Amino acid sequence: VIALNVAEQLVNKGLFEDAIIVYDIAGNLEKVLELFCVLLAQVVSSGGALRERLRSLSEHVSRRLRSEELPSPHLVDAYNKLCKLMTFFDQFHAENYEGALETIRACELVPLSSDEVSARVAGARNARGELLRALPAVLRALCHILLAMRQKLRTAQPTLSTHTANKQLEWLREQAEVLNTFAGNIAYRMPGDTYSQLAQMQVLMH
What we know:
The chain is an all-alpha fold.
């Protein structure tokens, strides 16, 4: 009880990172996940000391999740997806674009094929706010990845068969269309530059 009171006081002071540790000691995994999601959503796409500390802490939290009775599935899903997004952005910044696409596919947050659009739109409708706040950065990163892949294809085109080049270009165009469709259909209103970047990417695919 004392630990919970201390944790609540820390939350009231905005000291979420310290509160996570105290809630963990008190065995309140649900509060740990809630605060973890709040903090991670703020730094998931960037670097910095807090992000690195959260990464280390996530290993401990994930072990707890495997060994204890789970709190709200909705909350656990948000936590797991934010952890995957941390990996996605690591791969993105390292220019490991193939790996980043595989990670975002496993995350099941945004669609990477037309077959996935409806499910991902529905998922976004029910997603926690922390996940939605990460969406603009995810979509902007995907724009960058797809445009980089388009440029790479343009450079390699003379060495590829027409069939191979057309197939890859068709795939890239589908990705661009799928992401624009997704962004236009989710209820969450993103910053205007995200929509314009998506639209510009689609134009540049042609």
